[in-house]
Amino acid sequence: MSKRDYYEVLGVAKNASDDDLKKAYRRLAMKLHPDRNPGDTAAEERFKEASEAYEVLADPQRRSIYDRHGHEGLDRSGGAGGGFGAGGFADIFGDVFSDIFGGGRGGGPRRGSDLRYSMELTLEQAATGAAETIRIPSQETCGECSGHGTANGKPAPKCPTCAGAGQVRVQQGFFVLQQSCPHCRGRGTQVSDPCRPCRGAGRVRKEKTLEVKIPAGVDTGDRIRLNGEGEPGERGATPGDLYVQITVLPHDFFERDGTDLHCAVTIDMVTAALGGEMEVPTLNGKAQLKIPEGTQNGKVFRLRGMGLKSVRGAATGDLLCAVVVETPVKLNRRQKELLREFADSLAGSDASHNPESSSWLDRARKFIEEHLKA
């Protein structure tokens, strides 16, 4: 079976630079590596093909032979799988995979882990913003050993296995991979007599107090990041961040919809019929709501600008008040008589007093008549 063109395998032009070759191979290796495609023999074969192509084209001498004479020229000069000495393909492959899987030459201390803190707020706090004080567990540099992890407080000697790099290179055929040093677990140092307070870790667990500024308008699911307030990094590396996760608690009176607020306003039937004015609560105090004559149950009134500020802009939401008309209960004899007199006064009049019920009755009669005829 004839071999494919190496440039075609990597998907690059014949004048591709060394950097272009490396990027193309990195992309294919990320996609086709056997560890990422367990049991996929087709991906494994393509991975081997890409590795062979990169092995040849990354070497100036063999690339020159291949450009002039193709696969036959490589076979005559020693084949596609040989020809590298010290610092050859094994080093190139190691560089590529250190980029793919992390690490890199010399290893280095790891960045500190990020932390998450869950914070519950009332709707009022979310609306106005707040400055909340929190206490979180933290890892701090051990004062007994100054972070070295040794009983005498002096820097620990370098790990003899990795020479202080924290990583070792493992040869697998012609592949060279980098991984954390198994002897020092990536620390790069060897602590034979550990510090007692921190047990050789160089850090001790404590609590710290932080002030979190909550912007007005935050909602459930929002996160506030405090840079550098997470776990400290190893051996002086960059600390992680602290993410404060916001949950806004349900409110007794209002329901939130983004920056808008919704509430129910109960009125009596007389106010609904004759109109009136009433006070309604808002998050900033109270507001006057005008009820026009003939207000029906379910009518929604919008009070503009009475909602919440947007945490991402200057816009402010509205307060939407849904009217609930309450039917009177436990009437005495005189009150019932007055209602009957009122009902009698409407008898025989047109549908202008009760347009909704008249319309409903007409539709109901029509449906019944059509149904009975069918």
Description:
The protein has 374 residues and is an alpha+beta fold. 30% of the residues lie in helices and 25% in strands. A four-stranded mixed sheet has the order 8-9-13-12. Strands 1-7-6 form a three-stranded mixed sheet. A hairpin with a 2-residue loop joins strand 10 and strand 11.
Sheet with most strands: 4 strands, mixed
Round the Cα radius of gyration to an integer and report it.
38 Å
Please report the first level of CATH classification, the CATH class of the largest domain.
Mainly Beta
Strand order of the largest sheet: 8-9-13-12
- The coarse silhouette is elongated
Helix-strand makeup class: alpha+beta
Termini Cα gap:
79 Å
Beta content comes to 15-25%
**Uncertain segments:** 82-91, 102-107
Helix content: 25-40%
Number of helices: 9
Helix and strand element order:
HHHHHEHEEEEEEEEHEEEEHH
Q: Give the mean pLDDT.
A: 82
Annotated CATH topology of the largest domain: HSP40/DNAj peptide-binding domain
CATH architecture of the largest domain: Sandwich
Tell me the number of structural domains: 5
Number of strands: 13
